[in-house]
Each structure stands twice: as structure tokens, then as C-alpha cells.
Amino acid sequence: MTDPRGLRRFVKRAAGGLAGPPPGLPPSIQEILAERAAGRSGAGVPEGAERCEMCREVLGERHGHVVDLEKRSLSCTCRACYLLFTHEGAAGGRYRAVPEHVYHDPGHPLTDADWNELQIPVAMAFFFYNSALDRVVAGYPSPGGATECELDLAAWDRLAAAYPLLETLVPDVEAIFVNRTEADVVSPEGSPRQENSAYEVFLIPVDECYSIVGELRMKWQGFDGGAEARAALAAFLAGLRRRAVPLAGRRGGPEVRPGPRVPELEEPGSRY
Length: 272
Hints:
The structure is a single chain. The protein contains 7 helices and 10 strands. It has a 5-stranded antiparallel sheet with strand order 7-6-5-8-9. The chain folds into 2 domains: 1-99 and 253-272, no CATH class; 103-249, no CATH class. By secondary structure, it is an alpha+beta fold. Helices cover 26% and strands 22% of the residues.
């Protein structure tokens, strides 16, 4: 999917990246990035090393991501460039740094009725507010990458009014990640066994949605994804559980720690 209405997986960028700062930045930021780029030396840098898409600094294993709201794309950035876009309205509002925090709200769990109201046909999905479309969109993993699905916006609004975690979603850079599991319920003797759904709901950086979708795509086998894909999802969920803090501890403004490196796939571009 190549237009702003679609969701797209993370993919590997063309070798060498950008030749200089991206267009459309205010002169002051253009000057900062041009000065940084001019001071970069290629000596001792391995061929094909991943570089900051703003200033050409060589990136480490962990780095930040910045959303280009005009192109609906994600750029890999060094920490210095990442910090330029952590404030509301930076670069005229076109670029926004993707935060790293993860929140949950165990006091307000989703129910089967809530999930059925959203009419999501799969057990794992993510939701984010697309400011270009002025609405929430939903996506889920598939063998072909991220797939967009229709979302009942009226149902979403009703749930957002009831669940603070959904209502605090920051447009374009944060996502609600939901994973549903089924567990057998012990029934009285003679009664049929029943299944009970459990829902894990997290507020996470939007880039991490595409990170897990890309990893699942690479490991997907068969109809249901296979053992490797299930193990990858389990590891991803375990990481979210370790990092998640209660929503009550949320403070205003994005955090400025760089996010995890994203798995690289095979096509140029990174749009959503």
C-alpha cells in the first residue's frame, strides 16, 4: 500500500540513504543538519552501514525514528537529530519523534463484548490515529505484511470514552496494540468446557507495530504463521510486559530515548 490510506511494513532502504537533509525543513534545522553532514567522514565505516537519514551519521544497533507526516513515512535517525523533533510543532509540525514508552491499564481490561464491537477478524491488531485521514485506522499482521482492516469508528469512539488508555493515544506516533488469547475455563462436572478470552492491551510506539509485523512476515509459515512466528510474537509480548508502566504514571510530552532497531526487509521505502 503506497498511499496515505494504507498501512505498510518496515522495509530496507536503498543503499546509501539520503544525500543530505530532507527537503521541507525550516532553514535553521536545514543548517544544523547540513553542518553535521559536512563533518561526517567515511573513513573506517563499513560499506553499507546504516546512516541517519537526516545528517548521515552512522547509526548504532539502537536508534530513534522520526515520522514524516507529509509523506507518511518513518526515518531512522541518530540521537542528535531525533532530539530536534521531540517537541510539538518542531519543523513546522511536519516531523515528529516516535517515543519509546509503553503503557498499560490493568484496571480497565477489554472484554469479549468490547472486542466483538470492533469487529476485528483476527486475534492481534494495532490501532493508530492517522492525522492525514483524521481518523483511527486498524492493521494486523499477515504473510504479506501489515494489512489494513475496516474499523467501526463509532464503536471505537464509544470504547475510547470508556477506556483511558485508548483516549490518550497521540496521533501518528503511538498505537494501541491488542493481543487476544483463548484459555479453557474449568466447568462444573457434566458441563461443557468453555473458552474465555483474555486481552493484553498496550500503548506503544507506532514503529514497534511495524517491527513485529515485519518479523512475523519473515517467519510466517502455513495458515496460522507457524511455531517460529508464534515464538516471535511471544517474545515481543514478553518485552512489552517488562517495559509497560501503569497509565497513571504517564507524564506530558514524548520521551527522548531512541527506540529499538527495526528489522530490515527487502524493499525501498517505509510508509504507513
